[in-house]
Amino acid sequence: MKGKLNSTSIYQNSVNAEILSDISNYDFKSNNQTDIPVELDWEACLINSKDTTVTLFLHIDDLFRTNGVIYSPNEKDVIKTKNTCYITVTDKNKKTTRIYHPTHPFPISAMWQSFMVYDDGKSERLKNLTINYLGRRWPGISGELQGYLTNDDTSTPDVIKVDLSFILY
C-alpha cells in the first residue's frame, strides 16, 4: 500500500506478507458456486505512533465490478451503497476514537481489479514412484481509494483526504 493520508505519506510493503498481520487483516468471500471471490473486507492500520492509531476499513460488495462510489451508511441523502469505507482515529493519550465516513457531495472513489494468483503444480520422482503435487490458486485485488472522509462528530467537523493504492493477495 502506498499513498497519502492528508499530507502524511503512507507506504507499507509488508501488508501482503500474511492475510492476518499486525497491520492488515483482509478476507475474500466467495459464493457457494465458485471459489472466485465476490466480496472483500479489509482492515489496515495506516498510522501507528505513540500517540495515535489510524485504521482504514473497506468493504467491497461486488468484486466483479471494477469501480464504485462509496457513501456513508449514515448519509441522510437517499444515496446508499453496499460498499463501505471509513477511518478511525484513536488518540491513545485521551483514550478516544473518532470515526470518519465519506459524505455527500464528497464520496470515496474506488477502483479495483480482482485477479487469481496461480502456483504451478510439480512432479517428483522417488525410486519407481511419481508424486504429483497439485498447484493452488488464491485471490488478489489491486485498487485505489481517493476522496474525503468527514468526522462523524458534527460539533468539531474535520476532514481526512485519502489517496491510496493497494495490492492484496
The separation of the N and C termini measures 12 Å
**Could you spell the SSE succession in H and E letters?**
EEEEEEEEEEEEE
Report helical residue fraction: under 10%
Instruction: Please tally the β strands and state the result.
Output: 13
Determine the mean pLDDT. Answer: 84
**Which structural class fits the helix and strand makeup?**
mainly beta
Strand content: over 45%
Rg calc: 19 Å
**DSSP helical segment count:** 0
Shape: elongated
Low-confidence stretches: none
Largest sheet: 11 strands, antiparallel
Structure description:
The protein has 169 residues and is mostly beta strands. Helices cover 0% and strands 60% of the residues. The chain contains no helices and 13 strands. It has strands spanning 2-5, 8-11, 24-30, 37-48, 52-60, 67-70, 84-91, 96-101, 108-119, 122-126, 129-133, 136-151, 159-168. Strands 1, 2, 3, 4, 5, 6, 7, 8, 9, 12 and 13 form an 11-stranded antiparallel sheet that branches. A two-stranded antiparallel ribbon has the order 10-11. The radius of gyration is 19 Å and the shape is elongated.
